[in-house]
TrEMBL record:
TPR repeat locations: 95-128, 135-168
Lineage: Eukaryota, Metazoa, Spiralia, Gnathifera, Rotifera
PROSITE patterns in alphabetical order: TPR
Keyword Isomerase: no
Species annotation: Didymodactylos carnosus
Alphabetical list of Gene3D superfamilies matching this protein: Tetratricopeptide repeat domain
Name of the molecule in the record: Uncharacterized protein
Keywords: TPR repeat
InterPro entries per record: TPR-like_helical_dom_sf, TPR_rpt
SMART domains registered for this protein in UniProt: TPR (SM00028)
Length: 202
């Protein structure tokens, strides 16, 4: 079936269907830790949604919701780590594809490529972007900035994620709690860095 899809005469409706199929396959591959294939399928889904004239594409596909204890052990470990987010939803748009694409690159340690896709979220021409979607992008960017030692920028990104999250969900929502934990963890890193610098200068 997949081999036949590219040869079909595609209209807007066909592109949406094809995009949903590849998005579904990407979710399956991602859950099986087959990151490269998931990335390829998400690229095709992105292309399909780009060819569609509709800014919002409804689908019954559930996007992969990566748990805190993810397989690659980059979220929780014996050390303080940072909580990444993907977008579980029954409503898929290019914005969600960009975020999930960036997420797959980030979990595969390709931060430069991940940032390219997160930037596409902010450059999107979609009229209404869910604030919670934007909060996910800022949250994941914050983790990259922290990894690069940019503590102030990480705090700024995590704070934006928190502020945007508050627009959509209550302060008891698990994601809000996670965003707060990320901010506190950055501050712990900053304090430890100061202690290290003081030790080295003594």
């Amino acid at each position: 079936m997949l081999d036949e899809l590219p040869s079909l005469p595609l209209n807007d409706k066909d592109n949406k269907r094809k995009g949903m199929i590849y998005n579904s396959l990407a979710v399956i591959r991602f859950e099986k830790d087959d990151i490269p294939v998931a990335q390829e399928y998400l690229k095709i889904a992105e292309q399909c949604f780009s060819l569609s004239n509709s800014p919002q594409v409804l689908t019954i596909v559930r996007t992969n919701q990566y748990t805190i204890n993810c397989k690659k052990n980059i979220v929780n470990s014996s050390k303080d780590e940072f909580i990444l987010k993907s977008l579980p939803s029954n409503q898929i748009s290019k914005v969600k594809i960009y975020i999930n694409m960036g997420y797959t690159y980030q979990t595969n340690y390709n931060n430069e490529k991940a940032l390219e896709y997160y930037q596409k979220v902010f450059d999107s021409e979609e009229n209404e972007i869910n604030p919670l979607d934007l909060s996910v992008a800022y949250n994941n960017i914050g983790q990259i900035q922290l990894t690069n030692g940019c503590y102030d920028k990480a705090i700024e990104s995590y704070t934006k994620a928190l502020e945007l999250g508050f627009r959509s969900v209550p302060d008891t929502h698990p994601w809000i709690i996670d965003y707060k934990k990320n901010i506190l963890t950055v501050y712990r890193y900053m304090r430890n860095k100061c202690k290290e610098q003081k030790f080295m200068s003594d």
